[in-house]
Amino acid sequence: MDVAALNVLGYEDFVKIFGNVVEKCPSITAVVWSKRPFANLSALEAAFYEFIDALPDSGKEGILRCHPDLAGRDLQSGTLTTESREEQTRAGLNALSSAEASLMAQLNQDYKKRFDFPFVICAKMNDKATILEQLLERVGNDRAEERERGIEEVKKICHLRLQALMLHKL
User: What is the CA 42 to chain-centroid distance, rounded?
Assistant: First the structure.
């Protein structure tokens, strides 16, 4: 899709196409639609980032809470969003050994207990070994550091999803 086509999309079409750029947060997409016209993909991406950055800490944590556990129940039951399923599969999280699956489940549980939001990492930019390593490392961070780190990962996910949508839609 080129930027001219993007800029003429109606509200419903824009939200339908870009509604999951930030996992399960179509309300962000609705606000971004109102910022049109966009000069280019970077401007569209910046509009998403500006909205996220302007949120209070509780809003940022709300975004993190919209993300599923990695290799969790949603992946096993097939209830992930299409984007998350593709990203987790690409990282090999659908093919964990039973020991890896048990470790991942325990680490996810420990992480959520410590921070009250799930561990977020751009699965598409990592493999299962790196994800496990990062989960082990990041569970030791403080809440503010981890909230910031999680939001930076959300932005990486957003960037890759926007690129894919702009290349393949319309």
Answer: 18
